[in-house]
Amino acid sequence: MKLDVALIQTRTPDTHEGAWAHLEPLIREAAARGAKLILTPEASNLLQRDRAELFRRLRPTEDDAVVRGAVALARTLDVWLLLGSVLVRDGADGAVNRSVLIDPAGQVAATYDKIHMFDVDLPTGERHRESAAYRPGERAVTALTPWGELGLSICYDLRFPQLFRRLAQGGARMIAVPSAFTRTTGEAHWEPLLRARAIENGAFVLAPAQGGQHADGRATWGRSTVVDPWGTIVAQADGDEPGVVMAQLDLEAVERVRRAVPSLSHQREFEGP
Q1: Which helix or strand (DSSP H or E) is residue 185 part of?
Q2: Nearest-angstrom CA–CA distance, 153 and 159
Q3: What average pLDDT does range 46-59 have in this prediction?
Q4: Residue 219 in contact with residue 183, Cβ under 8 Å?
Q5: Which of 55, 61, 152, 195 is most open to solvent, judged by the fewest CB atoms within 10 Å of its CB?
């Protein structure tokens, strides 16, 4: 079975209106080029570093302008569309970083809330405290598509191989890693981590990314990437400019690789340390 996929690489602005104006033509381009599954990066609906302003702008998922636009567009284009994540309100005083998978009927087929919060102090002096703004998720999610199960993750989740193993054991043949990697961590770790997660689990890894210098002052790495189950990069953006990365997946490769290296069935329980 073959599947044409598209990764949308964006440079999301700091307003919902700007984000959708930026995102919509790229999704339309991907569909026009034949993609049946289209994936966007983390924080596709806005990027805003000022926390007070961010919370002022956040809306519940169903009221978010980018989600509403994506629901209508998926129906119009007859495609599966993963909003890699949107930053949305969850309750009166909470927020989550949420993946939203939309089917060609314009229905939300699955959502996933980012489990692992990006709380780091980088050698460059950059300090990030995602847990100060967002409530972490508590549940791994796979979603059934016409091409098999799609496992959902978001950005910093990439550093936690146990989540990817759980998704693969739950039937995922493809795993999405929508991201907004910093330039510091992206240059050092982006490609090795993506390849490792694909190899460990014998799965396609689909990683659309933010790229470039954003309106809110942050800089992201780009290099949106598709990795096959053997760990080979089959498509990759060559920098951080917005655009569309196309790839055709041979989904039978998942079974071939898992037969050759059946590590999913070799896992054993053990004691210590």
Answers
A1: helix 183-201
A2: 11
A3: 92
A4: yes
A5: 55
Q: Which two three-digit tokens encode residue 59?
A: 């809306």
* 31-to-73, 125, 131, 218 alpha-carbon distances in Å: 10, 41, 35, 29
What is the reported pLDDT for 125? Answer: 85
Q: Which residues contact 217 (CB under 8 A, 6 or more apart)?
A: 49
What domains appear along the chain, each with residue ranges and CATH number?
2-261 (3.60.110.10)
Of residues 221, 199, 201, the one with CA closest to residue 210: 221
Residue 164 has pLDDT above 90, yes or no: yes
Q: Which of 31-35, 48-52, 238-242 has the weakest average pLDDT?
A: 48-52
The sign of the CA dihedral 168, 174, 177, 178 is negative
Which residues are tagged catalytic?
42, 114, 155
Within 10 angstroms of residue 192's Cβ, the number of other Cβ atoms is 9
Q: CA 71 to CA 107: how far, in whole Å?
A: 7
- Do the Cβ atoms of 238 and 209 come closer than 8 Å? no
Are the C-beta atoms of residues 227 and 234 closer than 8 Å to each other? yes
Helices (H) and strands (E) in the chain, counts: 7, 16
Which tens digits make up the pLDDT trace of 200-234?
Answer: 999 999 999 999 999 888 999 999 999 999 999 99
Residues with Cβ within 8 Å of residue 127, at least 6 apart in sequence: 120, 121
- Number of residues that make up the chain: 273
* 3-class SS of residue 54: helix
Mean pLDDT across the chain, nearest whole number? 96
Instruction: Residue 29: count other Cβ atoms within 10 Å of its Cβ.
Output: 16
Residues forming beta bridges with residue 222, ordered by sequence position: none
Q: How far apart are CA 33 and CA 14, in angstroms?
A: 28
